[in-house]
Write a structure and sequence with these properties.
202 residues, mainly beta, Immunoglobulin-like, 2 domains, globular
Length: 202
């Protein structure tokens, strides 16, 4: 089947995930590797488990070694008592929790690829060379329910608020094939379409 998708948003589009049930078939972005700049995004997300007590605490920090943070923006910091703050030109620290959602920080660096990124949270402690951060997510798994830290690069300025594309999707030989899209905007908001249930009529 051919599925046609068009998204028009009020803010820049980070990505669109074309999904079948729990699987991501493809991630579509309105920009490519050649458009990337000195902007790096760090996301932490997920939960302990389903139900009560699922909250995951991510209180921590990141340090940029051999580079400098020119400016930064918090992502999905809605709790007034939990903030993302700067400490000098190389360090951010925060208090943050997730319960299946995500939060993070958007960094504009002085140099696109110089130095390394050091992340310290209760669930992920890691060091990553900034030259290795690209279009695709670098993922650090942290157990629990889809609990992880993701690091990826963005264009310095993303002008794309609209995108349209078509894709061929396979329909299962038996049972339903639920196709839908998840849209992630740069400001941290998401939109999910209702699934289209496809099946083969016999």
């Amino acid at each position: 089947m051919t599925i046609a998708v068009r998204v028009d948003a009020a803010v820049p589009i980070e990505r669109i995930d074309l999904r079948c049930g729990p699987r991501t078939l493809e991630t579509i972005r309105p920009y490519g590797a050649a458009d990337l700049g000195a902007r790096v995004r760090v996301i932490w997300e997920g939960a302990e488990y389903r139900g009560r007590g699922r909250m995951t605490t991510w209180d921590g920090s990141l340090d940029v070694v051999g580079n400098e943070i020119v400016r930064f923006e918090p992502i999905n910091f809605w709790h007034l008592d939990k903030r993302l703050e700067r400490s000098g030109g190389h360090r951010l620290q925060w208090e943050s929790v997730t319960t299946g959602n995500f939060a993070g920080a958007d960094l504009l660096l002085a140099s696109p690829a110089a130095g390394e990124l050091r992340i310290d949270t209760p669930h992920v402690q890691t060091t990553l060379a900034l030259a290795e951060v690209g279009l695709d997510d670098t993922v650090f798994e942290a157990g629990g329910l889809a609990r992880q830290v993701r690091v990826f690069r963005l264009p310095d300025v993303n002008p794309h608020r609209s995108i349209a594309f078509e894709r061929e999707v396979d329909v299962a030989a038996t049972g339903d094939t639920p196709i839908y899209v998840r849209v992630t905007l740069e400001n941290g908001h998401q939109a999910w379409s209702s699934p289209i249930y496809l099946f083969r009529h016999r």
